[in-house]
Amino acid sequence: MRSFVADGNFKADHLKQKSDVSDVWLTNGEGFMTQNEQYDIHLNVAKDSKQVCKLLFHNLIFY
Amino acid sequence: MNMDWSLCETLANTNIGDIKEVLHIYDISCQYSIHLRERIEQSQLLHIPDHITLLHAIGLFHVHGHKDKCLYRYATNYIPGAGVIDGEVLETLWSVLNTVSASTRTATLAHRSEILDDHMCDNNWKKMLHIGKLFISL
Questions:
Q1: Distance from CA of A35 to the nearest CA of B (A)
Q2: Tens of pLDDT, residues A18-52
Q3: Which of A22, A36, A52, B108 has the fewest CB atoms within 10 Å, i.e. is most exposed?
Q4: Which pTM does this prediction carry?
């Protein structure tokens, strides 16, 4: 049996730039990161369902 | 939304092969697992391989904060085949990773992603090198 541990609770604290174009991505989907294009499509399509949480978790993955 | 993506990508990219059961330990498994299958079926991009049975569990530290019925359904103690695990390993790994926040704070989004990726790969490398010592000490 393979097991995976998942968790949310994450802040993306980084330098904000004037435009997205000025940011240079060296990788796209390699290593632990996800592919930006696919992920963006998913974010547009998926509906965030409201769940009653007993504990507060903000879900973010690296992008 | 993000957790669905991360789960499906993990199942696709971590060489599961023929393994039939996957244990997914998540702090809000009790709510997350309810409509998971429906969300995945509705989406074109999300996919769980057919031969995989997903078992849901909650990490031991968090399950004790839930209702009583959550304990017996979701604690790893009561899931056959789970072994003796607490399922809280992610938080311990992240506490180590927090020390790089000084450099990521001043990085652009792309650069930050590279920094974190490098550090996580380094963590894995070090774990791999030293795992023999762990087994010897047991």
A1: 10
A2: 777 778 888 888 888 888 888 888 888 877 665 55
A3: A52
A4: 0.78
Q: Report B:66-125 residues touching A (Cβ under 8 A).
A: 66, 81-82, 85, 87-91, 94, 101, 104-114, 116-117, 120-121
Pairing status of strand B21-26 against strand B53-57: parallel
For B46, residues 6+ apart whose C-beta sits below 8 A from its C-beta are A42, A46, B4, B5, B8, B39, B40
Residues B60, B92, B103: CA angle, nearest 5 degrees: 150
Element (H, E) at A3: strand A2-6
Helices (H) and strands (E) in chain A, counts: 1, 1
Which one, of B29, B90, B21, B12, lies nearest residue A7 by Cα?
A: B90
User: How would you label A25-57 residue by residue, b for 16+ Cβ within 10 Å and e otherwise?
Assistant: eeeeeeeebbeeeebeebeeebeeeeeeeeeeb
